[in-house]
Amino acid sequence: MTRYQHLADLLAQRIEAGLYQSGERLPSVRTLSDEHSVSISTVQQAYHLLEDRQLITPQPRSGYYVTPRKHTPPAPAISRPAQRPVEITQWGCVLDRLNEEPDSDAIPFGSGSPDMCQSTMAPLWKAMTRLMQAQDSRVLNYDPVYGSLALREQVARLAIDSGCHLNPADIIITHGCHEALMVAIRAACQEGDIVAVESPAFHGIMQKLRGSKIKVIEIPTDSSTGISVEALKLALEQWPIKAVMLVPNCNNPLGFIMPEQRKRELLSLAQCYDIAIIEDDVYGDLAFEYPRPITIKSLDTDGRVLLCSSFSKTVAPGLRVGWIAPGRYFDRVVYMKYTGTGASASHPQLAIAEFIKSGGYQTHLRRMRKYYQQNLEKFTCRVREYFPCGICVSRPQGGFMMWIELPEHFDSVRLSLELSEAKVQFVIGSLFSASGKYRNCLRLNYGLPYSDKVDQALRKLAKAVECAMLECQMQIAEENRQAHANR
Hints:
Blueprint: H1 3-16, H2 29-36, H3 40-52, E1 56-59, E2 63-66, H4 91-98, E3 107-108, H5 122-133, H6 149-159, E4 172-174, H7 176-188, E5 194-199, H8 203-211, E6 215-222, E7 226-227, H9 229-238, E8 241-246, H10 260-273, E9 276-280, E10 305-310, E11 322-325, H11 330-340, H12 346-357, H13 360-386, E12 392-393, E13 401-405, H14 412-420, E14 424-425, E15 427-428, E16 441-445, H15 452-485
Parallel strand pairs: 3-14, 5-6, 5-8, 8-9, 9-10
Antiparallel strand pairs: 1-2, 4-11, 6-7, 10-11, 12-13, 13-16, 15-16
């Protein structure tokens, strides 16, 4: 981090903490230069950066002032789903999303893809090209069902950062995290079983469980600390739950990182009730803080945690390279993998192995963590500025997903249909519940390169939200008036 970036972050923290109030004049360039022992140019660059983030505003011949702004919206409260096993619905809405025609003019806030335009991707492109130009026969041949040994060795190295000590023989390469989660479910569960999930939970997880004819019980989840271990314990006492499935690091859609103590409590509970833990760590490497958070798998002593991940969110989804460390379920997962897709494609595995081994992956991660964190600051500022009061916004600690909760009677499905003509896309909240809860919520991808076009799309979204909220308030007022008149 450069000196001016460090100074800008320090000033931003002071503004967020209220040390510099809204509308207050900031210290002069010379004062800050003396105070922090940096050049005047460094202070000016820091101020320009804060101006780009819309945290400060210049006044001619007067200096810089904290931009007047609304208070930051509160974080969503702990969820309150119906705590009983239910059949998973919402497939129709998911299918509608899958059938959407790609539109280059649309702003895809609903996308689950990372930014793939960074220069740190260049070594991967070169590795893929080099393998093809060398006419390496491995590129066109079958790999073992376990996957490329070269890649499994590198994945085992990477796992050390998350506290895991895995051998290459503990790892199976899969066709993305999608297959990793699918074989994990089928290895640990059978048709008719009950699986506990976070609420809200990634809709892809929901549909995988639905495809395996498994019921789910949604567990209350805090937007800062994750799944309620206390609520899960109550559910385990009442229902024959077979497994718990969760995204504890840089959660999708809430963005939290589950505290280490809560991870330990969850594992202890799973051991007590002898259930499996299916851990999705696909966003874990994108935590803003370093070292990255540990996985629940790193605490596992009896092999009950099936750790799933991929390079779809950290590098690119089109590579379709994921992996699973299934612990005691290893033989069952191998069977599911063999009877499902068999061997995975060799070319992307070999390219990623080289990308990691050469140091390119870690360089790319450092770039992306910083990039997403800066983008989050921009999006948070714009949401605070553009959106009406009465909303709640998540506080992501990594990844690139933001969750916005609107008033209870709000209909994000209707809003999505209205904004589709305006080329603004987002994911409706009801997809993240087995029973269609969170219709008043939406998920945004803040990893998009910020531009005037993106800014205009956010303004359109915010304006549409404001109009819909006013309409909703008027409808409620009319219903209350009618009810009062009928007494």
